[in-house]
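Quick entry, no commentary yet.
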Amino acid sequence: MSTSTVPRVWLAAGLGACPAPTDGPTVRDDLMRQWCPGPDGRWHTRDGRHHADWRELHTRFDLVEVTR
């Protein structure tokens, strides 16, 4: 497996600054919700019920990139 296909992980431990990824990946939190970037610069769950900016997501959840 090449490193380009390995999903990225962002832990909510608060270790240093974590700017939002410039490529706007879809991510999954530790509650198994998928968050997709929206045109407003915020991430939204697929059902549209939850909205957060990257700082809020990174602070509250461990995040894993969804690669498919």
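second:
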Amino acid sequence: MKLLILDAGHCLSLALAREANRRTDTELVIEEGLELSSEQLEALAPDALVIPPLARPIRATPAAVTAHAEAVERCMEACRAAGVPLVWCVSDQLYEDGFAEPIDEHVIPRPRDESLRRLVATGDRIRAEYPQHLIVRLGPLFALEGSHAWLGELIDTLVVGEELRGESDVTCCPTSADAVAMALIGMLQQQHCGAGAWGSYHLAGTEPISVYTFISVVRTQLATRLEGRGDHRELGSVKALHHHHDHPLRRVLNCRRVLEVFGVHQKPWRLEVGRMLDAWCQANEACRPEREDETRP
């Protein structure tokens, strides 16, 4: 199976590349940006086109959101002309106000924010005009590297002693980019074999948690690992923010359909965070204890 991935520097694109490298049944072609012509698509002839999400669209400028939406629509038109399935990953932030209960796939986001509505309009157009699509709604992605790599950004801030802030009244399901990459390739392999299960799916980590608590867990686990390696640096602090005093916001995705249709299980974000922190410590020279022979005169 050959996949064409756009936005090469995105943390999800990098995760897809790592997952494909571990397999013998998947070939990736990765393009730098989001622009793609029909001629390019026909020449590459992939089995699917994958577009990573615009991370944190609530904080993005209206121009950036509009540019992303328009690029996705042009890709959809090219896919339709070439008969190539389209996979578009989107942020859970499109559910701007959240819901008291876990959000099912059939619930179309209806945000108040004009920029977010532009992304929803793109999703509506894809559903109406091109059946061969997967719209995959994701919880907040975290990874160690790449653009929008939330965990990497948190670590970088903590190790230089700067303060981190996170909402204590916003509950979400942090989602490992590596877990998403594994799930997407598995889903597309089944589609490639004739599953025909097109439509919208939710994919997120287990255990809903506030943004503030997630950041605090990252800080605690990082501190534990550093101390175990003899590194006693002072990490930055974590401060709780309160933006929804009257009505705490819950943005929790119900991922039952992706399990029922594709057999994809959600990965516990705590295990993924721990694994990534271990990898960061092993890769980061500052985290390694000095070897005995280096301490001798």
